[in-house]
């Protein structure tokens, strides 16, 4: 019997991630198709994608160049081992990533996801210092409300309480900077907020507490996405870079969300003019089509491992699917699509229009803050007393029924549409959202 892809006969077996499973399975929301800016639901409705999937489909959906590259690669070379063997596409993609990366980034280590990219970067940071004879540098510094994936290293340096509290004591030797969200001073900021650069100075306090000689790395999202779009105050990232350099601490930018055009530059490091030592990426690398991630490093980080006999493995780390041929082909085609269609530049051009449309929601019922950068925006709602997250989740459900896809985290609505969105579609997205907000209790 042929599989009916639109109406699965039993929803019980699949334990869905980051989902209210019981609620979903009582009233499933099923996508069965997608093209460009829209999803198609099981009942044939078109839903405007206001989130680029999960921050990942930057070029929109079912783009021909990417689909064709995947099919062609699958027919020629479906898999090749990544340990002691190679294939051309993995090297070609690495070269193309470095071409658009910030100056100084020279090497690419492949993973399968943002979570694995973070784990890789954290391990590289500790191993880097050990390779240089500073093995006491094992401490890792994250940030409150930071999101760095869901593996043990990522949730240890991360700072979202609900992602951490169920999973024990996590990694030892981790400390956290304060987050940069200052609503009393920066509410309704357009772009980077004015106040809060001094929060980076908390790193000096942490250094004094633990000793610089014990700290391997600081990891932050240049712009924190999954926690509700928290922007870096003006001068904050620059100050963080100054302090880490002063104390010989590696600076890691988690660019899983901000990478590949989301802010109008290839990477947020370029947008903000700050040079980290490593960058974690995923999502937009393959347009979300096939799992793939990558850690970008400077030559200094890479070369610290290139010691000893040439026949010896330099780094005992990697994944079965590192540089997978089909994922690499998807990555190359994705970067070609970005370049040919000028999507990074398009994002920069649309950003002012997006900003004004988004901030037009100021004064709408229950809206207590709006934040934006590039083609990212957040609308923060006043929580229902005693029922946190309920108001935003209600907005999510109503938005879906009205034909737009938004994302919620806590009582914050986050949006990050594909970079191919038109001004008319921005108007549709924001206009529909306003109509939803006007109906909320």
UniProtKB/TrEMBL annotation:
GO terms for molecular function: adenosylmethionine-8-amino-7-oxononanoate transaminase activity; beta-alanine:pyruvate transaminase activity; pyridoxal phosphate binding. Its cofactor is pyridoxal 5'-phosphate. The keyword Disulfide bond does not apply. It comes from the Bacteria. Its EC number is 2.6.1.18. PROSITE patterns: AA_TRANSFER_CLASS_3. One of its GO terms (biological process) is biotin biosynthetic process. The keyword ATP-binding does not apply. Keywords: Aminotransferase, Pyridoxal phosphate, Pyruvate, Transferase. It holds the Pfam family Aminotran_3. PANTHER family: ADENOSYLMETHIONINE-8-AMINO-7-OXONONANOATE AMINOTRANSFERASE, BETA-ALANINE--PYRUVATE AMINOTRANSFERASE. Belongs to the class-III pyridoxal-phosphate-dependent aminotransferase family. This is Beta-alanine--pyruvate transaminase. It comes from Rhodobacter capsulatus (strain ATCC BAA-309 / NBRC 16581 / SB1003). The lineage of its organism: Bacteria, Pseudomonadati, Pseudomonadota, Alphaproteobacteria, Rhodobacterales.
């Amino acid at each position: 019997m042929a599989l009916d892809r639109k109406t699965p006969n039993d929803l019980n077996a699949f334990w869905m991630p980051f989902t209210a499973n019981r609620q979903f399975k009582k009233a499933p929301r099923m996508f069965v198709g997608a093209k460009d800016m829209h999803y198609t639901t099981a009942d044939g409705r078109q839903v405007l994608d206001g989130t680029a999937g999960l921050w990942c489909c930057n070029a929109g959906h079912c783009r021909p160049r990417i689909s064709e590259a995947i099919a062609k690669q699958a027919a020629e070379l479906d898999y090749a081992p990544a340990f002691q063997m190679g294939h051309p596409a993995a090297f070609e993609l690495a070269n193309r990533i470095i071409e658009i990366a910030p100056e100084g980034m020279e090497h690419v280590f492949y993973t399968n996801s943002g979570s694995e990219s973070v784990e890789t970067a954290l391990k590289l940071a500790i191993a880097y210092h050990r390779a240089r004879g500073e093995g006491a540098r094992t401490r890792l510094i994250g940030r409150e409300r930071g999101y760095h994936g869901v593996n043990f290293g990522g949730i240890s340096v991360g700072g979202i309480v609900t992602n951490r509290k169920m999973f024990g004591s996590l990694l030892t030797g981790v400390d956290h900077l304060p987050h940069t969200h200052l609503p009393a001073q920066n509410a309704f900021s357009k772009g980077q907020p004015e106040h809060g650069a001094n929060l980076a100075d908390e790193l000096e306090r942490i250094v004094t507490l633990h000793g610089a000689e014990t700290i391997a790395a600081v990891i932050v999202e240049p712009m924190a996405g999954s926690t509700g779009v928290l922007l870096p105050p003006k001068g904050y990232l620059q100050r963080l870079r100054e302090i880490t350099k002063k104390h010989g601490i590696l600076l890691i930018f988690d660019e899983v969300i901000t990478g590949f055009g989301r802010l109008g530059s290839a990477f947020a490091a370029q947008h903000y003019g700050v040079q980290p030592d490593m960058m974690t990426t995923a999502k937009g690398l393959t347009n979300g089509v096939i799992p793939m991630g990558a850690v970008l490093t400077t030559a200094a980080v890479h070369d610290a491992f290139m010691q000893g006999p040439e026949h010896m493995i330099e780094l005992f780390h990697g994944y079965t699917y590192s540089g997978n041929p089909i994922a690499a082909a998807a990555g190359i085609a994705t970067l070609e699509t970005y370049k040919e269609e000028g999507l990074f530049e398009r994002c920069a051009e649309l950003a002012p229009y997006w900003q004004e449309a988004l901030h037009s929601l100021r004064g709408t019922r229950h809206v207590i803050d709006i934040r934006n950068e590039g083609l990212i925006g957040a609308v923060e709602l006043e929580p229902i007393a005693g029922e946190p997250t309920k108001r935003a989740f209600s907005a999510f459900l109503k938005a879906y029924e009205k034909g737009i896809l938004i994302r919620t985290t806590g009582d914050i609505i986050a949006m990050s549409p594909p970079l191919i969105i038109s001004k008319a579609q921005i108007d549709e997205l924001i206009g529909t959202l306003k109509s939803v907000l006007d109906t909320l209790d």
